[in-house]
Amino acid sequence: MYLTGINTIQSQSKKLEKDSPKKVREFFVASLVKIGDPVLDALSKNELKAKMPVERSPGAWDARTNVTYLEAFGRLLSGMAPWLELGPDQTPEGKLRAKYIDLAQKSIHNATDPNSPDFMNFVNDKQPLVDAAFFAQALLRAPKQLWEPLDAITKENVIKALKSSRKIEPYQSNWLLFAGMVEAAIIKFDKDEDQKRLNYALEQHKKWYLGDGTYGDGPDFHWDYYNSFVIHPMQLDIYNVLKDKTNDYKTDFNTELKRARRYAAIQERLISPDGTYPPIGRSLAYRFGAFQLLSQIALWKELPKEVTPAQVRSALYTMIHNQINAKGTFDKNGWLQVGFYGHQNNIGEGYISTGSLYLCSEAFLILGLQETDAFWSDAYEPWTQKKIWSGQEIPIDHAEK
Description:
This protein is mainly alpha-helical. The chain has one domain (1-390): Glycosyltransferase, CATH 1.50.10. The chain is 53% helix and 1% strand. Strand 1 (209-211) and strand 2 form a beta hairpin. It starts with 5 loop residues before the first helix and ends in a 13-residue tail after the last helix. The relative contact order is 0.15. Residues 25-383 form the DUF2264 domain. InterPro entries: DUF2264_N (IPR049349), UCP014753 (IPR016624). It holds the Pfam family DUF2264. This is DUF2264 domain-containing protein.
């Protein structure tokens, strides 16, 4: 069923309150699979470049065919990784995971094999650095399923591909973290990391912290969702690798986690009673990927004390349900189309193409929690805006340094 219009969204929101936690998880799994299946099915057969359409916005910078395939693969896998890391089991969901773990492993092989029809561009243009980083992030989020089972040749090809992206110099912005994320994966899985690229990214972001859980994108503040698309999640994952290697980074990790927790609290308060949120800033075509950070903090069980897992699940469910069911979100063959609510091609910036859109999968990080976890088993609970706009009391909100 497709949703159209604010009245439909509002009436649908009330109905969703009655859905059981089990039904909600089944929706999340089905939605992630719906998003990911065309990409992984094609890539696992070396058919991604042949099958994936490349939709561009009216102001597209170029054809985008040299970068869009790695975008789709790296971003999808980064969001899907925690679910895959749960591994296979004999439940229906576990058997489904087994299928996509297999497809993901084959896709990793094909994407990094220089002799493969779907070998991906990690070096030409600037954009491949971005999606080498999302690919690296996926490996860090699911090492038991996406790295350890790979054969030696594939592992070697992966490391070569990641290291080849070093020729790309990042911009003085969130892009520094893409270079840092690649180096974090090299620390984890290989050797000879580039300490300069790694540490420069982290030190600059210390300088760009503006307070109350928010970083500038570079030295300046931007009203957009890049603190969630990139800045917090990548710092968390980089520091998570570093703190396991040496105690020198534990303080930095704890500081970043505190800031990320605050930003997650803000994100939860941004979701309206009917599951909509402000269409502010760049890259709105990433849709609900804008709430990656809230999903990651829930996955890590680090939600602020005033935010319960059930209210986050309920908010994300309503929000994702709205957008994924809007008419035009997918084309007739199941590929994502450019838009925020449905198909709105004009909303894409010059760098947006079909592959870019798969960043939306980052909202599904919470599928890395077992279905028995409180996040997936506690009863429905209204989130902050739903409470206050129905006259209930909510905790006073406080800024943090």
